[in-house]
Design brief:
heterodimer; A: mainly alpha; two-stranded antiparallel ribbon; 11 helices; 76% helix; 1% strand; B: mainly alpha; MetI-like fold; 12 helices; globular
Chain lengths: 309, 291
């Protein structure tokens, strides 16, 4: 009896230690970033977030152009990626309800997009997608819709907010569609049957009884996709052009928080380095917020009905 | 659910909307799949000519010379992913067992939640963290720091897939074992773990695939090099970082080799992911925690 208890205690302690390491990691991450970013935080204060200048020689650092770049590219990615993801999820879980094998096959194909490393997206973006977009999308948009400020730009290098946003959209589709798919699959069939019995069409069933039921889970997937777009580094740094810009013009080169880190951290020192770490701290805070919100939404959803997302 | 299911008296407008939405949903599926086909196709077409024996076994050459290979990068990637697996498998599996078998404890809930949050974290930030705690203190970029950074990405994935697969082990098995007088630790290690080992393997494979494709966390931890490594404590090349630098180099030979390296990487990823799909069969939920 004595021995059994000891075995249980030892295992519990070992496993709890592993779990504690994970909590410790998140705490240490926040603490170290704050510690190294401190000089920049004290020097610039909250003004860092709205400062427009990034001038290494004069030791002037402001994060606004990078925050702007991150927001714009993520917005493009979400506007394009979210409807597509939702469409894929609806197709697999609603239209293919009687064809499980084909639905599973299609889901696998979309999931494989998530397995493509981001640096390969970057490589493909630089040599294939950017030239294509420049000729077949950006020039026509500029030509016919140039009166809208978004498409007014004459920068036709192709390395701009727009291209980066498109690549991000491709990258976040698997995340968002996988989550939405699980959530839609978890909607009880009685919901659909009730609507059908009232004489609704397929779309009315989806729109009025399935989507509202799955609302919070779908939003969770949306937020997770957004989080991925915020944090993505390699593909964006290769495509966005890396020039700090705040402009409504989508065909202008830009810069994002994570691509700034990738490009400039290596050669930085002193206050410069500290400012870049503060940029990482912003990214950390946003990622924490986004992921906590998304997980809470998904957890709430998965408590009510049986799913694992 | 074909159109014939619809009642006869349905209005034209509703029919049209229904049809239109079906078409839009199909368009979405096409738009989601076309990029995948394009990427894989391009990588195969442009990458295949670059791959030959020297490419796999030789060191890189100077930009003005032809030939050369990416062997040091392959070696570096294998060493760092291996090191990351060594660190993250025990911790990840341990934490995963704790999340699933001790799920009533507060610690388990909090750590499980933070674990999920970590899986969605920007990997660049994780890399900077390792730079601060390892590279600054050891004063050199190293395979050790790179492997450690990759382990921060692998651990939460392994922990999550472990706990998900152990949760699927029927409670009756645990109860039967305990009823025979087997202590809890033995029940957990012998009964629960061995029943859920397929899921565990899945998690480890997925985490390995994910780590093999990571670039950002290696930029400031392992940095880069053109040499084979002698110790774990010197700057180390990796396939992903090599693709990044070569792609932006505008040296034709290097750009071709970047495509070759991308093909190599994609093949490894596809193989690992298909292996995962085959192991877990038709239970799709577990396969996706990698994102």
């Amino acid at each position: 009896m004595q021995f059994k208890l000891r075995g249980d205690t030892i295992l519990t302690i070992l496993l709890a230690a592993a779990a504690l390491l994970i909590i410790g990691l998140v705490v240490a991450l926040a603490a170290e970033l704050c510690y190294i970013a401190a000089p920049s935080i004290f020097k610039f204060g909250p003004g860092f977030l709205i400062g427009k200048k990034w001038n290494v020689n004069k030791n002037e650092f402001g994060a606004l152009p990078f925050i702007y770049g991150t927001l714009v590219t993520s917005a493009i990615a979400i506007i394009i990626g979210f409807p597509i993801s939702l469409g894929v999820a609806i197709f697999i879980s609603e239209k293919l309800k009687g064809h499980q094998t084909f639905g599973y096959f299609l889901g696998t194909i979309v999931d494989l997009l998530a397995a493509v490393p981001s640096v390969v997206f970057g490589l493909w973006g630089v040599f294939v997608l950017v030239p294509l977009l420049r000729v077949y999308l950006e020039r026509p948009l500029n030509h016919y819709l140039g009166f809208i400020p978004l498409f007014a730009g004459k920068n036709t290098s192709g390395f701009n907010f727009f291209s980066a946003g498109i690549v991000l959209a491709i990258m976040i589709i698997p995340t968002m569609s996988a989550v939405s798919r699980d959530v839609l699959n978890a909607v009880p069939n009685s919901q659909r049957e009730a609507m059908y019995s009232l004489g609704a069409t397929d779309w009315e069933v989806t729109q009025k009884s399935v989507l509202p039921y799955a609302r919070s889970g779908i939003f969770g997937g949306f937020v997770l996709g957004l989080g991925r777009a915020f944090g993505e580094t390699m593909a964006v740094v290769m495509i966005i052009g890396n020039i700090p810009n705040i402009t409504a013009n989508l065909f202008s080169s830009g810069y994002t928080l994570s691509s700034l880190i990738a490009n400039e951290f290596g050669e930085s020192t002193g206050l410069y380095k500290s400012s870049i770490i503060e940029i990482a701290l912003i990214l950390f805070a946003v990622a924490l917020l986004v992921n906590v919100v998304a997980r809470l939404l998904l957890w709430r959803m998965s408590r009510g009905i049986q799913i694992n997302v | 659910m074909t159109k014939s299911n619809l009642p006869a008296g349905i209005s034209l407008q509703r029919k049209i909307v229904n049809k239109l939405m079906t078409i839009l949903v199909l368009v979405a599926v096409v738009l989601a799949i076309v990029p995948l086909i394009l990427i894989i196709g391009d990588v195969f077409v442009k990458g295949a000519p670059a791959i030959n024996w020297a490419f796999l076994t030789a060191k890189p050459t100077a930009p003005n010379l032809k030939g050369g290979g990416i062997a040091p990068a392959i070696e570096g990637s294998i060493v760092m992913v291996g090191l990351a697996a060594l660190i993250s498998i025990p911790i990840g599996v341990g934490a995963g067992i704790f999340f699933s078998e001790w799920s009533t404890s507060k610690l388990s809930t909090v750590a499980g939640f933070l674990n999920d949050v970590l899986t969605g974290f920007p990997t660049m930030v994780l890399g900077l963290f390792v730079f601060i705690i390892l590279v600054l203190t050891m004063k050199t970029y190293s395979a050790f720091a790179g492997g450690f950074a990759l382990s921060l990405i692998m651990t939460p994935i392994i922990a999550r897939t472990t706990s998900e697969s152990l949760k699927l082990v029927p409670t009756s098995l645990r109860e039967a074992s305990m009823a025979l007088g087997v202590p809890r630790w033995k029940t957990t290690l012998r009964i629960v773990l061995s029943t859920g080992k397929n899921g565990l393997l899945t998690g480890i494979l997925l985490a390995t695939a994910r780590a093999s494709g990571e670039t950002a966390p290696l930029l400031f931890t392992a940095a880069t090099s053109t040499l084979f490594i002698k110790t774990l404590f010197q700057p180390t090349a990796s396939v992903t970082i090599l693709i990044y630098y070569y792609a932006l180099s505008s040296v034709p030979n290097w750009v071709n080799q970047a495509w070759g390296a991308a093909l190599l990487l994609i093949l490894v990823m596809l193989a690992l992911n298909l292996l995962v799909k085959l192991t877990i069969g038709r239970n799709p939920t577990k396969a996706r925690t990698a994102m």
